[in-house]
Amino acid sequence: MAQRDAYCYRTVSNCELITARPQQLAILGGSAPLSVLGAALLVDGSVRRQTSAHILHVIEMQKSEERARSGGKQPPPARPRRPPRPPRTRADPAR
Q1: What is the rounded CA–CA span in Å between residue 13 and residue 6?
Q2: Which pLDDT score, from 0 to 100, does residue 42 have?
Q3: Is residue 28 very low, low, confident or very high in pLDDT (cuts 50, 70, 90)?
Q4: DSSP sequence for 6-37
Q5: What are the residues whose beta carbons fall under 8 Å from the beta carbon of 83, sequence distance 6 or more?
Q6: How far, in Å, CA of 68 to CA of 74, rounded?
Q7: 3-class state of residue 67 by DSSP
Q8: Beta bridge partner(s), residue 76
């Protein structure tokens, strides 16, 4: 047993042969794609949040400009029109 193949913990007499290297490499190989995926999702969420905040800010600026142009008067909000109801008919008692 060579010294480079042993792991010694605090004392030289308690050395263990390193045999878990393939298992450690497998765990590292499996965790790397997950780390990349997590980083990509984090960046994607951050960019979406910032873009959304920017769009809301632009919309607010446009509304502010419209208010300034109209002299501070805001038009009343438009009410949606409902289609007319069909006339009610009474149920035929003969049926």
Answers
A1: 11
A2: 96
A3: confident
A4: EEE-SSTTSEEE---HHHHHHHHHHHHHHHHH
A5: none
A6: 10
A7: helix
A8: none
